[in-house]
Specification:
The protein has 337 residues and is α/β, with parallel strands linked by helices. It is 33% helix and 10% strand. It starts with a strand and ends in a 17-residue tail after the last helix. The structure holds iron/sulfur cluster (2 copies). One iron/sulfur cluster (SF4) binds next to loops.
């Protein structure tokens, strides 16, 4: 058997669903309001969290402190779209003593002080250790900045050091520029200047190459031939598990290494059963050859990154056939552009 060994996860995120109030240009998991409202069931969340309980490692500063690449976070999509579920999974994680838990949010829901304070207090009382507030020019297109400011102010009151913003640079920049409402990306660039883009920590994968590719230099596919993604696909930190149970590593949306409701089976993958993963851990040229068998044609304008080439081939294959179970969830490939 042609096997791939996947180490046990030490930190990660649970996507409660892919549904989001925003459709950010940089979203790695292609989330949007157009996704079906398929929320993870309590039963499946319990199954997954029970198995993660003895594997997840907390922050070196303590199990009640948070860090982006430590512990377990609840994410999406936008987890606050289903607050009752968010509360429930927090309780389950707390019962299982999972360390360094936090929720990641775009703050769309922070419409007034009272309801913001109430929800955050409920989460803290249920055992959540912190919150990660996303701030960047792409979310600003959808979420009025005054809501983000409110979330930061009240989260600090409730979670103290457990309240963190990512990216902090944009939080202070938006404050300095006195932003209050939403702003299109074009308007943002006019007000903040194109040099601000150098501060964006952008991973050129998922939706970003399609929506922001015009900002970057492009290369022919052959530049990426010879590269393997073994390291990313066998990464044990910051793995993601979605509401369908798909186990994803390396921020690689749309590539399922198996069903996390039975984590033991993911430890050892039969690559003969997953030709796309096999190609990716071998050489991107192999993925390209596989794509060609399904009629894939290279983009004449080129690719911004190896992940652009990878996702573009996978998208094409997913449109032609459903024979590859690792291309999951299928809906991911419909919401990239
Ligand atoms: S980046 Fe976050 S806020 Fe934006 S669409 Fe994706 S999940 Fe939603
Ligand atoms: S090229 Fe594909 S498999 Fe490799 S890191 Fe990028 S998205 Fe993941």
């Amino acid at each position: 058997m042609n096997k791939l060994y996947i180490p046990e996860p030490v930190s990660g995120g649970l996507l409660l669903s892919y549904r989001c109030t925003s459709e950010c240009k940089h979203c790695m998991y292609a989330c949007s309001p157009r996704w079906k409202a398929d929320w993870i069931s309590e039963e499946h969340a319990e199954k997954i969290l029970t198995q993660l309980a003895d594997k997840i490692q907390g922050s070196p500063l303590g199990s009640d402190r948070i860090g982006i690449n430590y512990g377990l976070h609840f994410t999406g999509g936008e987890p606050f779209l289903n607050f009752d579920l968010l509360l429930k999974v927090t309780e389950i994680a707390h019962e299982h003593k999972i360390p360094s838990t936090f929720v990641e949010t775009n703050c769309f829901w922070c419409r007034d002080d009272e309801s913001t304070r109430r929800k955050l207090t409920q989460l803290k009382d249920a055992g959540l250790h912190g919150i990660l507030i996303s701030v960047n020019p792409f979310i600003l297109e959808y979420v009025p900045f005054e809501r983000t400011e409110r979330a930061v102010r009240i989260s600090k009151e409730i979670f103290g050091e457990g309240a963190t913003t990512y990216q902090e640079f944009f939080y202070y920049q938006f404050k300095k520029l006195n932003f209050k409402d939403t702003l299109s990306f074009k308007e943002y660039l006019q007000k903040a200047g194109p040099r601000s883009l150098s501060y964006v920590e952008l991973l050129p994968m998922g939706r970003a190459p399609y929506k922001l590719g015009y900002l970057y230099k492009k290369y022919p596919a052959k530049k990426f031939f010879g590269e393997s993604c073994r390291e990313e696909l066998t990464r044990d930190w910051h793995v993601h598990i979605d509401n369908y149970g798909n186990y994803m590593t390396g921020y690689c949306g749309g590539i399922s290494l198996g069903d996390a409701r039975n984590l033991e089976l993911i430890h050892q993958i039969d690559l003969d059963e997953r030709p796309i993963v096999d190609a990716l851990v071998t050489d991107l040229e192999k993925l390209h050859d596989l794509g060609k068998q399904f009629g894939y044609k290279q983009r004449s304008e080129g690719y911004v990154s190896k992940c652009h080439l990878c996702v573009d081939i996978r998208k094409h294959i997913a449109q032609q056939t459903d024979e590859f179970e690792e291309l999951n969830p299928r809906e991911f490939y419909r919401h990239l552009e």
